[in-house]
Amino acid sequence: MELGLAGKVVIITGAASGIGRACARAFAAEGASVALIDVDNDAGSSLQRELAGGELEAGASCMFVRADITDPTHMEFAVQSVAHAFGGIDIAVGCAGISGPVGVALQEVGVAEFERVMSVNVTGQFLLAQQCAPFLKLSNVGAMVLLASDSSFVAAPGMVPYNASKGAVLQLTRALSVELEPDGIRVNCVCPSVVDTPMARADLGHTSETFAAQKYPVQTAEQVANHVLYLASPVSAPVNGTSLVSDYGYLAQSSFPA
Ligand SMILES: NC(=O)c1ccc[n+]([C@@H]2O[C@H](COP(=O)([O-])OP(=O)(O)OC[C@H]3O[C@@H](n4cnc5c(N)ncnc54)[C@H](O)[C@@H]3O)[C@@H](O)[C@H]2O)c1
Question: ∠ CA 85-146-83 to the nearest 5 degrees?
Answer without folding.
Answer: 10
